[in-house]
Amino acid sequence: MALHLENMKCASKFLTGRPPLRLRLGVRGLHGPTKQNEYTATAVYPKISPSRDRNEENTHRTKEAVKSLKTVEEKMYQINRPKMFGWYTFMLRSHFIMPDTLDWTKFATCTHVIDGLPTKLQYNKDTDKSIDSLISQIGAEVEQAILNEEYVEYKRDVSNDKIYKSEKFASGKETLDKEVIEKRRSDFIIKRIHNVIQSHLAPSNPHVMNAVEDYSARRDAFWFRGGIMPDKLMLGKRLGNQRFRKEKAKSLEYERIKQYGDELVYAPYERCIQIHDKPVIQMRHELPLEQFLDRDDALCTQVQFPIADLDPRSYGFTAECQHGTNIPGHWPQDSNRMGLLSYHNRINKYESRRIGSAYPNPEEMESLGDEIRGIMSNFAWTMGQAVQLGFSPLNELTFPLASQSVNTDGKSWSFYAYQMNTCDLSENDHNARTHQNLMWKHPTVQLYSKIEDGKLVNFDPDCLRPLIKMYLNKPKERAYNMRPYLDPAVPLVTDHPDPYQRKQFLEIIRNQMAQKPHHMRKPEIYMWEKVKLIDNVAMPKQFALTRRRRWWHMQKFDPLGKEHWHPEFVNYDQKELKYIPKGMRPAWTRRRGLARRYNKFLPKIEVPLKDKVAVWRAPDRTYKGEHDD
Q1: β 269-277/401-408 pair status
Q2: What's residue 585's pLDDT?
Q3: Residue in 442, 403, 158, 129 with CA at minimum distance from that of residue 289
Q4: DSSP conformation letters of 88-146
Q5: What are phi and psi of 16, to 5 degrees?
Q6: What gap in Å lies between CA 79 and CA 393, rounded to an integer?
Q7: What is the pLDDT of residues 538-595, one digit of tens each?
Q8: Rounded to whole angstroms, how far apart are CA atoms 49 and 46?
Q9: Are strands 269-277 and 450-452 parallel, antiparallel or unpaired?
Q10: CB 468 within 8 A of CB 197
C-alpha cells in the first residue's frame, strides 16, 4: 500500500506540481492523528550541518571515528580497516632518492626548508666555551677512529680460490657492489664517532646517559596527502560518469539526476604515501625535545612550501598495495618513545641505477639528495611518534614535535632540525591549510678532504660543533597532556583487561605492521577477461555461465554484493571463525569427517574492543570409560 501511495504521489506531483488533498490527508493519517498545536513559545530551528556536502560529512565522520578510539593499536587498525588487501600506496625510500623530486617531497610532507639551524642549536663563541674544550679533547680520538677503518678487514673481503664471474661462491672486494662497501665504511665511522662523543658527554649529561640507542631501526610513516590532481585513469572515469549523467538527464525518468560538472571532473583527491627509512643510529628518551618555535608562530602558520600537485607517477614513484604502517623504530609499549638524534649515511642507489640526469654536477645531486633524505627521515620519525601519542594521519596535532638528524659518510656532514606542526595532510583545498612543517638545514661541511700517508688531510674537528649542540639539546617535560586522545587508564591494547581480546588483537595488528603477503592473493581482472568477457563479449553465454564465475561477475548478481567480492571494498574485519591448527584440536575431532578446523564458540574481535567478552568452550563429550556408581 505504501508503494502504491508513493507511486500515486509521484504521478500527481508530475501533473499538477503537488499531491492532491485526499492523498495528502491519507499520507498524514499513516503517521498518526493531526497535531492540535504545532506552535511553540520560542523558535525551534533545525540543526545546521557543519559540512557543506555529503563527502565532507563522511570525511568528518571517519576522522571522528578514529579519534574516538582510546588505544594506539585500535587507531592503527582503524586506518587499515577499510582495505583487506592494503591501500594503493606510493613508496618513498630513503636509500633511493631522485634529486629532481625536492619540490614534490616538500609538498607531500608540507615542509618549508629554512637555511641555517634554529637559534637554540647555533654556536655562540661566548657561551659555548665548553664545546671548544670538548672538541679539543675528542679531536685526536675522532681522527684515529676514521683511520682505523682503513685497517678493518671483513670476512667477505678475503678472496678464496674461486674465480670471480666464472665460478660460484667467489669472494673478495671485487665481488661487492660499490654501494655495499661505501655503506659498510660509513656505518663503521658513524658508530665510532658516536661512541667517542657519547663517552665524553654521558658522565655530565644525564639525558645522554639515559638515552636508548637503536641500530638499523625500522622507521615507517603512512599518511593521506590531499590536493593532488587526478591522473589519466581517474579523468577517464570521471568523464565517462559525466557523459552518462548528461545522456540520462535527457529522459523523463532521470530528470532529477544530479549533474556532474567540470569542477568535479578535475577536482583533486587524496593519495596514500608511505616512507621506509632505516637510520644507522637513533637515540630516544622518555621526554620530548623542546619545540624550536611556537606552533602559532607566523613561520608555522604562513604556508610557503611549493605546490607540486601532479600525480606521483609523473615524478617516477611507483605504487604497491600494502597496509599503512607508522613505526618510529620501536613498539608503543616502550617508555622511551621520544626521539633525540639520528644518524644517516649518504648512500643513494639512484646514482648507480639512473640513465642520464638533469644534474650533471655530482655535488649538486648529493646536496639535493641529502636535503630530501633530511625531510623524509625526520618526517617519518615525528609522524611515528605522533601516532604512538594517540594522533593519526586523520587527526591533527595539538602541539609540535621536534627531531634532529645528521647525514654523513664520515667526510661530509649535513645537519638538520625538524619541527612537525601538522600531521593531517588530507585536506584537498590548499588555501584551507593553517600550518606547515619546518626543517632547518646547516650547510654541508667537510671534516677532512682525504686520507694520505696514514693521516687525514685538512682535518677540521670544529665542523662537529653543530653535532655537539644537538647532543646537548636537553629534552624537557611538557606542561600539558601529550596524549589527549588516549584513555589514561588503558592507552595500549597490552594493558587491556580481557586476555582473549588482548592476545587476538595484538596478533592482528602485528600481522598488519609486518606487511607480509596476504595468505590469499588480491583478486584481479586478467587481460584476456578484460578483452573477451567485459569489453567484447566473444564467448557465448551458454558457455560463459558453465564455468566458475569470477569476482567481477559475482559482485553484480550475488546477494553478498561488492563488499564480499570486490577486493577494493572488502574490509579487514574478521569474517570467519578462528582456525585451529591440527595439533591443537581434540583427538576425537581429527578423525575422518570430524575435522573441527574452526571453533564456533570463540567470539570474533570487534573494534572498539569491549571490556569483557564471553569465551564459550565446547562441552567435553569424549568417552572417559565406565565409572563405578
Answers
A1: unpaired
A2: 72
A3: 403
A4: EEEEEETTB--GGGHHHHHHHHTEEEEES--GGGS--TTT-HHHHHHHHHHHHHHHHHH
A5: -110, -10
A6: 8
A7: 776 655 555 678 888 888 888 888 999 999 999 999 887 777 777 777 776 666 655 5
A8: 9
A9: unpaired
A10: yes
Q: Residue 471 region, left (φ>0) first, then alpha (ψ -120 to 50), else beta?
A: alpha
Render pLDDT for 81-137 as a digit per residue (tens, 0 to 9).
999 999 999 999 999 999 889 999 999 999 999 999 999 998 888 778 889 899 999
* Pairing label, strands 319-322, 219-228: unpaired
Instruction: Supply the DSSP symbol for 416.
Output: E
What is the number of other CB atoms lying within 10 angstroms of the CB of residue 555? Answer: 17
Is pLDDT at 354 greater than 70 in this prediction? Answer: no
3-state DSSP helix/strand/coil % of the chain, to nearest 5: 40, 15, 45
Identify residue 338 by its one-letter amino acid code. Answer: M
The DSSP-derived string for 1-27 is -HHHHHHHHHHHHHHHSS--HHHHHHH
Contact 139, 132 (CB under 8 A): no
Sheet holding 269-277, edge to edge: 319-322, 87-93, 269-277, 219-228, 327-328
Task: Locate 109 and state its grid cell.
Answer: 610532507
Closest by CA position to 572, among listed 171, 34, 81? 81
Residue 196 in contact with residue 471, Cβ under 8 Å?
Answer: no
Which contacts (CB < 8 Å, 24+ apart) does range 494-502 have? Answer: 494/333, 496/71, 496/609, 497/611, 497/612, 498/609, 498/610, 498/611, 498/612, 498/613, 500/603, 500/613, 500/615, 501/605, 501/609, 501/610, 501/613
Q: Is 271 helix (H, G, I), strand (E, B) or coil?
A: strand
Q: In DSSP terms, which residues pair with 392 in a beta bridge?
A: 395
User: Which candidate, 470, 454, 458, places its Cα nearest to that of 412?
Assistant: 458
